[in-house]
Amino acid sequence: MSVNQYIEQNRDRFLSELFDLLRIPSISADSTHAGDVRRCAEAVADHLRKAGADNVVLEETAGYPIVYGEKIIDSGLPTVLVYGHYDVQPSVPDELWETPAFEPTIRNGKIYARGACDDKGQVFMHVKAFETMMQTNTLACNIKFMIEGEEEVGSNNLGPYCKNHRDKLKADVILISDTGIVANDTPSIDVGLRGLSYVEVEVTGPRIDLHSGVYGGAVANPINILCSMIAGMHDENRRITIPGFYDKVLDVSETDREAMGNIPFDLEDYKKHLDIENTMGEKGFTTIERTGIRPTLDVNGIWGGYIGEGAKTVLPSKAYAKISMRLVPNQRSTEITQIFQHYFESIAPKGVRVKVTPHHGGEPVLTPTDSIPFKAAALAMKETFGKEPIPTRGGGSIPIVALFEKELQTKTVLMGFGLDSDAIHSPNEHYGIFNYFKGIETIPQFFKHFAALNQ
Ligand code: BES
Ligand code: MN
Ligand code: MN
To answer: At what angle are helices 11-22 and 34-51 packed, to 10 degrees?
Structure first.
């Protein structure tokens, strides 16, 4: 039986098994779901075993387990290490979901559920593609799976795990489906991801909350101060004003920028989809460039003072914000965090004290395009989409990609199948049934071409 025949015959089961996985609320950020996260790891392990993987284990870490499994068919063949994550983002605010986040539902050809695209749907494509290759006797490479449960909270335990299991994880390429394509009729492969520097800031004014009439006007209000400090971090051209912030930013060649300009993109659709009248970003760059090759600074959350019902006339003692900076090659996460901290402290007026607490970070990456893995992925997509994929830059971050290079000396190929409009991390996350099956069809082609190109 051919690969496509097998997929066709098992279509309904491939969907219903994914649905079972999506019903498990494996939210790594929320400790009340610790049992669910673990249950999800066990479910992934069971599916790998049933699909035909050997030596399937839950590798215990200081946090959630890493699911490992493998099929070594011939030590002379190349080995593909598949990475993905079974944990998901929180579903809040739940009231904005049209159907509950952990009750997968099909509407308009799309599977709605938290994790449908990021990343359970995309991980499960690999499990089902593996099953398909096993059942049709077409597995052309050795395969190893490493599916973690802490990607959405910074992958803190994955680095040490890789370092301690270099031999076990030895592979010729790391294959990841945790990114997207331009459109369903425009396949693409991300050849770069942004890095991340994430900090939390605290601004303290007076010892306690004060009467805003008795003291207002005479004492620094930490929320007012924090807002003006943050506002000053962009200039009139929407460039970040932190000294040294752009020093290491790698210039992108005119040819590469021209190629980015040729990526199909409809600004009107984009604005309509987001319900905004206009886009906004760094002067001199297009929307695709702003999210692909330029660094950013965004407030992710800001709080302090009185936010209860009605009015309370108070001059707050404290103000807080969570701030993320997306980084591009060759910025370094720790260095950017440091210069942010230094700058934030330097612009604080005397009337307040400030504290900067670094959270997780990650390095930006570029993946090669002149390599065998990239060529194999391009050939595979060309076969299943009928079109050559375009190289693109992903705006998001997968910090472990840089780490894999460091700890395992292995390069990655980012063959994702999501769409920007899939609402990952947002209410009503979804994944096209088209994309799910396109992934299941394309992955075996990758293995075929990767084996052939390595001969
Ligand atoms: N799958 C995403 C990353 C992604 C999405 C890359 C779309 C390219 C395009 C991943 O699960 C994610 O959300 N990463 C986090 C970083 C992490 C340290 C929490 C992110 O980008 O915010
Ligand atoms: Mn992801
Ligand atoms: Mn994510």
So the answer is: 160
Determine if ligand 1 sits within 6 Å of the CB of residue 69: no
Pairing of strands 142-148, 66-71: antiparallel
Q: How far apart are alpha carbons 455 and 450 in whole angstroms? A: 9
Give the ligand at the shortest distance from the Cα of 119.
2
Interacting residues of 407 by C-beta distance below 8 A, sequence separation 6+: 159, 162, 163, 166
Q: What is the mean pLDDT of residues 28-55?
A: 98
- Give residue 209 CA to ligand 3 midpoint distance, Å: 37
Ligand closest to 394 (CA) is 1
Ligand 1 pocket residue status of 359, Cβ below 6 Å: no
205 lines ligand 1 (CB under 6 A): no
Tokens coding 189: 């492969």
Amino acid code (one letter) for 40: C
**Ligand 1 midpoint to CA 12 (Å):** 29
pLDDT tens per residue across span 296-352: 999 999 999 999 999 999 999 999 999 999 999 999 999 999 999 999 999 999 999
**77-101 per-position pLDDT tens digit:** 999 999 999 999 999 999 999 999 9
Give the three-class secondary structure for 281.
Answer: coil
pLDDT tens sequence across 115-150: 999 999 999 999 999 999 999 999 999 999 999 999
- Shortest-distance atom of ligand 1 to CA 394: 8
Is the beta carbon of 398 within 6 A of some atom in ligand 1? yes
Q: What pLDDT score was predicted for residue 414?
A: 98
Q: How far is the CA of 409 from the centre of ligand 1 (A)?
A: 22
Q: At residue 360, does pLDDT exceed 90?
A: no
Which domains does the chain carry?
3-193+364-453 (3.40.630.10), 195-249+295-362 (3.30.70.360)
Query: What are the distances in angstroms from CA 262 to CA 49, 259, 382?
Result: 44, 5, 18
Give the DSSP per-residue string, 72-121: ---TTS-EEEEEEE--B----SGGG-SS-TTS-EEETTEEESTTTTTTHH
Distance CA(121)–CA(455), nearest Å, equals 32
Q: Is 151 in the pocket of ligand 1 (CB under 6 A)?
A: yes
Structure-token pair, residue 367: 């993946």
Residue 418 · residue 181 · CB < 8 Å:
yes
Pocket flag, ligand 1, residue 88 (CB < 6 Å): no
